[in-house]
Write a structure and sequence with these properties.
Elements: E1 2-3, H1 7-17, E2 35-41, E3 46-51, E4 57-61, E5 71-72
Antiparallel strand pairs: 1-5, 2-3, 3-4
Length: 74
């Protein structure tokens, strides 16, 4: 039941428990200041990721290395 979050779910993580959350919840998720892949794809070669320093989302080639944070269905 663990899976890679969509770009929308990843953004919710950033704004609610990541660096973008309001105090006292700022980064209670323990995210590194780096890029995290989402499961949202553009095509077979490109997917979306989110930078957890400023919340910006980009898309890039899947062959590039980024962190991942699996989430669980509830």
């Amino acid at each position: 039941d663990w899976y890679l979050p969509s770009k929308h779910e990843l953004n919710l993580m950033y704004t609610n428990i990541g660096q973008g959350a309001l105090s006292p919840n700022t980064n209670i998720g323990g995210f590194a200041v780096t890029d995290y892949w989402s499961s949202t794809e553009i095509d077979d070669f490109v997917a979306w990721y989110q930078y957890f320093s400023n919340g910006i989302q980009f898309h890039f080639y899947k062959s590039f290395t980024h962190y991942v944070r699996a989430i669980r269905a509830f």
